[in-house]
Amino acid sequence: MTSPSQAAIAGAETPGPDGAGLNSEPVDGDKAATDQLGRSPGQLMWMRFKRDRTGVISAFVVLIMFAIAALAPVISWLYGKDPWTRYGQIRPGLLNDNAYPVKPNGGMDSEFWFGLEPGLGRDVLTQLVYGMRTSLSLAVVITILSVVLAIVIGVAGGYLGGKPDYFLGRLTDLMMSFPNQLFFVAFTPVIGALLVSPQDEMPTWLRACVLIFVMWLLGWMTLARLLRGQVLTLREREFIEAAKVAGTPPWRIIRKELLPNLVTPILVQSTYMLPNFVTGVAGLSFLGVGMQGSTPDWGRMFATGAEVYQSDITYMIFPGVAMVIFIVAFNLLGDSVRDAFDPKSGR
Amino acid sequence: MRTARVSVVGLAAGALILTGCSSGGGGDAGGVSKDDAAKQQIKYEFGDAKDSTGPAEPVKGAKKGGVLTVYQRDSFAHLDPAQIYVSDEGSMSTLIHRRLTSYKRDSAGKYTVVGDLATDSGTPSKDQRTWKYTLKDGVKWEDGSPITSKDIRHTFERQFAPFISEGPVFIQQWMAGASGTGYRKLLPDGPYKGDHLSDKVLETPNDKTIVFHFKDPQPDLPYALGMAGYAAVQKKGDTKEKYDKKPVASGPYKIESFKSGKSMKLVRNTEWDAKTDPVRHQYPDSHNIQFGVSFEASTKRLVSDSAENQTAVSYSNQVDASSMQSVRSDPKVKDRSLSGYQPYVGKISFNMDRLKNKKVREAIAYALPAQSLMQAFGGSGGGELAGNYLSPTVAGHTESDPYGKVENPQGDVKKAKRILKEAGKTGMKLTFAYQNSPEWSDFSIAAKDNLTKAGFDVQLKDIVTDTYYDQIGKIKNNYDMYHSSWGADWPSASTVIPPTLDGRQVQDGASNYSHYNNPKMNKEMDRISKIKDADEAAKEWGKLSDEILKKDLPDVPLMYYKQIQLHGSKVGGAVMNNVISGIDPTQLYVKK
After folding, report:
1. Domain ranges for chain A
2. B411-441 burial, b for 16+ CB within 10 Å, e for fewer?
3. B15 has a pLDDT exceeding 50
4. How far apart are CA B98 and CA B96, in angstroms?
5. Is the torsion defined by CA of A34, A35, A37, A38 positive or negative?
6. B309 φ, ψ to 5°?
7. Of B329, B429, B445, which is closest to A120 when you measure between CB atoms?
8. Which one of A96, A294, A320 has the shortest CB-CB distance to B18?
9. How high is the ipTM of this complex?
10. Is B25–A302 a contact, with Cβ atoms under 8 angstroms apart?
11. Cα A273 to Cα A145, A150, A325, A342, distances in angstroms
């Protein structure tokens, strides 16, 4: 990774802004250089990112996905259906004798755009948008928490060195050795027994908290290791040494000197972590230990889809395609972000 | 016969195949309609000597020869008749074990209890405390030695041995006149230490005659003797515990090899004489049984009908709920399918120690959507709406429907709301425990939806499948309601009403899951179980069960379980037998 000063130099070596690279016309080198002199690394990154068409498209897709998820209640209101009503069961003529949609393609029609869920007869479109809302909000929370914890542990380990580093390193290794899905399967009933009276259902918020907690607990290690490595190299660099000699307090060194240099790995890693958490949460739901019952959930739609795919493949298509698009777009976005920060790597 | 239906609807691999379009459900998928149900309405009669004489009515077009491949989900844990209580083992046991009586199904679908080893279904004394059976001539074990009354005596005496723990206990209890496990005191070591049952209980005056003496009238004895658990065991060949792996066969087939968990091969028993058997046939040369084939896998294989699957069948694997649509909408596959009842009735049991207010129970009964349960089990192929406690497979079944569960399959939320309001309990907390299987999870969602609308604060509790019945079987459980299902051991309500509703049976692990105890009704049960005329008894049971349902409402009946089974295109003679609740293996043949 590069320090800001290097990044600025690196930026100067790449084709300049204003489409200089795309434009075959020679541009006055001096002018380009002066253009860049006054820009911060962030601005440079933004300029490079804007030129990456894949990145921009992916970013749009991801943003749209998030917008859909966030606006689920609005969509549901406009569309006039909700994810909880069992339309197919309550209204005769929608599901047949075997509890499958009567109409072809999973019951798609002008009223139920994405069709109906076999069995319970709920609306697939609203199930999907609400399910995305559940999964994405869980994933975002987990990502934020994991990143914060990873920064704390990674930077502390790298900067302090010695014994603290040793112990934090071993802790990281220990946590990495837990299989998180198994851990979660085993962990939820215990929490349930501890916190919930045996006569009560585990409330949805508590289940969400347990889910977040476990995924958080087992999701920060990769980033922490990476950051520790970064900090270890940065620690020996001249500008840190200089700061130390000048008597800058450690907290200030970390905040002002180290963290700005860690923004790149943090951002890049979190764009990889978030889709991982989305699939992780979905995987747990698929196994039947994620969100339960009437809470719409993306992962549980796969479980249902896997049950019914022989007779109603359409049901699987919507959550499946949405998930594939989301994951691919997010990963491409991650790549683009990395390229934008550090154009020399990878290509 | 508690249901051990661990409905494992497998999570299919290749889940993300995103190609293709589904053709749509289509409207009426057909299946068993009410007319068929009427045809299946069961009337079991006791047959006389003529009914009990072999050979069995030949299956139309049947030919001898060929090898039958059989797919089974579970390996047979027990082969010793005295340990057999589970229905899939029971199916297989009809091929290798013979009993004193058996159920004969004629081509019109009428069932008769006939003599199997015995010459008729039994001769009772006037008070029905004494029953006399005579063995047929020419009945033999697989080693060629004749089956005598000594073997039958041994069969019943060894039922008392400590290592026999899994089989039915009805006749032992009747012999000892004791309830629960008290019967074991009659012959604590079985016949192995020189003690025998006295002539006052079981009399075998000569090689052919067996006389049962009971303390109370036992009009149901011929039914009970037809259970797989009371099949004959050879005295000479009894190896105690080891008999469970290598029993001596008396039926048309014998075991050539048995690899637990893998496979089993049954071959013809040459000593079996068709002339002595009014029920069984011996068409295929052998049955090759493969274990470990899931419902989903056997359905896929039988649907494909490729080479070796053409001559394949399963005794008890049913079509899994998610394949129901594909099986029932393809006419070619549908032709190879059989639909029938299982003996189980799915109910929601109330914990009467907690829900003491009948109004509340009524409100729940009205609110529950029975149709959602049926749909969760795959629609009308998986179940039928139930109005009362007696399944159509039980004598005395009526169409009564006091809580409108058939008439109003989505539940009557408005009425429920009103009743709950009258009771002044709107907003009360209600804990509903359910088995964490896809079917019951689906139903729990629908039930919660309706109950919430009716004004309950519903708390769903999912319990893992393995321990579900242990959890709800505890008297001091923390739940207000839970589902349970119960199947008759023989088609008389005497194996349904007392085990599930007799208040004197309430104990941990007992099948009276609602803890219902009404002394008046208990007395009534005692009275009816002593009625000698089977038809009259059936009517009385029906009346009593409806009275309990209307007056006290300890359980809400929701669904009579049904199933669909498939067979390959070259398998003939497949009929659904309601007694063994599956395809009757003794009638199958391989088409050339």
Report:
1. 124-341
2. bbbebbbebbeebebeebebbbbbbbbbbbb
3. no
4. 7
5. positive
6. -80, -10
7. B445
8. A320
9. 0.77
10. no
11. 12, 12, 16, 19
- Chain A partners within 8 Å of B444 (Cβ): 293
pLDDT of residue A264: 85
Torsion of CA A27, A28, A31, A32, to 10 degrees: 40
SS in 3 state form for B155-211?
A: HHHHHHCCCCCCCCCHHHHHHHCCCCCHHHHHCCCHHHHCCCCCCCCEECCCCCEEE
How far apart CA A251 and CA A159 sit, in angstroms, is 10
Enter the tokens of residue B313. Answer: 């069948």
Residue tagged 């090899």 (tokens) = B257
**CB–CB contact B31 A292 (8 Å):** no
pLDDT grade, residue B100 (50/70/90)? very high
Q: Cβ separation of B23 and A320 shorter than 8 Å?
A: no
Q: What is the pLDDT of residues B25-75, one digit of tens each?
A: 444 444 444 444 444 455 678 888 888 988 988 888 899 999 999 999 889
User: Would you call A307 and B12 a contact, using CB atoms and an 8 Å cutoff?
Assistant: yes
List, as own/partner pairs, every contact residues B263-268 make where C-beta atoms lie below 8 angstroms and the sequence separation is at least 24, other chains included: B263/B288, B263/B289, B263/B290, B263/B291, B264/B76, B264/B288, B264/B289, B264/B291, B265/B289, B266/B95, B266/B96
Cβ contact, residue pair A320, B16, below 8 Å: yes
Residue B250 φ then ψ, to 5°: -125, -15
- Measured in Å, how far apart are chain B's first and last C-alpha atoms? 38
Would you state the CATH architecture of domain A124-341? Answer: Orthogonal Bundle (1.10)
The mean pLDDT values, 10 residues at a time, for chain A of 347 residues are 43 41 44 61 85 91 94 93 89 86 86 89 93 93 95 91 91 87 79 81 88 88 92 89 89 88 88 90 84 86 87 89 93 88 63
Put simply, the answer to whether A311 touches B30 (Cβ < 8 Å) is no
The mean predicted confidence, pLDDT, of chain B is 87
The CA–CA distances, whole Å, from A28 to A8, A32, A39, A100, B120 equal 19, 6, 18, 68, 112
CB B308 within 8 A of CB B293: no
Give the pLDDT of residue A34. 52
Q: Which two tokens stand for residue A171?
A: 């802790």
Select from B28, B325, B351, B440 the residue whose CB has the most chain A CBs within 10 Å, as the one to mutate to test that interface.
Answer: B325
Which token pair is A29? 């080198």
> What are A126-172's pLDDT values in tens digits?
999 999 999 999 999 999 999 999 999 999 999 888 899 999 999 99
**What global pTM score does this model have?**
0.81
